[in-house]
Amino acid sequence: MQLYHHPYSLNSQRVRLALEEKGIDYTSYHVNPTTGKNMDASFFRMNPSAKLPVFQNGAHIIFNTIEIIQYVERIALVSSGSDNVAFSSGEVIEWMQKIQDWNSKFFTLFHIPEKYRNYVSKFIRRVIIARMAESPDLAAAYHCKLKEAYNTEEKLKNPDVLKRDKEHLIRLLDAVEIQLNETAYLAGEEFTMADVMLIPVLGRLVLLNLDEEYIATRPNIAEYWILVRQRPSYKKVIGKHFTGWRKYKTLMKTWCTVRNIDEVELGSNLDYATLTAVELGSHVVNRGRTQVHIVDRSRIWRSGCQLWSNSGFEMSTVIKLGVRNVDCSQTRIHNVDRNRTRVHVVDGGRT
C-alpha cells in the first residue's frame, strides 16, 4: 500500500492519522504541491485532479479522503481477524462529512503573506505550462489546472470569500464546542475517525497563529486539543512537523525548495517561448522552432514576436522571446483578430 501525501495537506494528515490509529503499514511518498510535484506527469496520470492524498493498494486507487479512511477501516478489520474492530457509525460519518464540508484552502491562503502567496502562485502556473509542453497528451487536464489557478487568484481578491469561509468555520467550531460539552471526544467517549477529521483543522489554526481566536475562546475545544495532542498518532503525523521550532524548519525547507526549483529546473524548461494561450486550449508542438498548435483553429503559427489567442486575456508568466525577457504579469494582450487567431502585445507603450 502506498500513500502519496504532504505534511501541509489537511486531508493527507487525516489519512495518515487514520493509518497510524489503525496500525496499518504503508509506503510513504512525499509529494509537495508547493513545489509543483503534484503536477509531474507520472502523478498527474494517476490523479488528474492533482490533489492530495492519493491512496494506492495494487490497482485500487482512491482520491476521496473519507473513502480512504473507510477503506483503511476495512483493512484494519480484515487484518485483525477480530470482532472488536468496528466500522464508523452513522454519527461518526455524519461528523466526518460535516468537517470535510469546510474547505480550508482559501481560509489558509488568505492568512499567508501576499508576497509569498503570489510568488508560489506564479511559480505553480509556470510549472503547469512547462508540464503541458512536456506531455501534450495531458494538455486538456493541465489546461483545467491552469484555469483553476487563475480562478483561485481571482477569488483571493474577493473579501467575501474569506468572510464566508470564516463564518462556516465558526459554525463548525461552535457545533463541536457544544458536542464536547457532553462527551470527551467528538462522537462519544472513545476516539473515532470523526476526531481524525477534526484534529488537522485545529492544527491548521495553530499553524496560522489563530488558536487564541478560535480555540482558546472555546473551553471545551481547548481541553480537547490538549487531550488529542498526547496521542502517538498526533505526535508522529502533525507534532513532528509543526510543534515549536519544527514548523519554521518545515516552512523554510519548503520555501527554499521552491526558490531552488524556480532558479534551476524551470529556468531550463522555459527557455523557449512557452506562450500561455494554452490557457485557451492550445499547446506547443515544436520547441525548437517555437511553433504552436491552435486546437480550435487546427493551424500552426510561428510565434515570432507576437503572442496569440482566440480572445483577449492577461498572461501572468515570464516568457522568453529571443534574448529579451518579457514579464507579462502587467501586460495586456489585445487587438484580437479572431479570423487569424492572433493578438498583439503592448509592453510599456511598445507593440
TrEMBL record:
It comes from the Eukaryota. SUPFAM superfamilies: GST C-terminal domain-like (SSF47616), Thioredoxin-like (SSF52833). It holds the Pfam family GST_C_2. PROSITE patterns: GST_CTER, GST_NTER. Residues 118-251 form the GST C-terminal domain. GO terms for molecular function: glutathione transferase activity. Residues 1-80 form the GST N-terminal domain. This is Glutathione S-transferase TCHQD. It comes from Rhamnella rubrinervis.
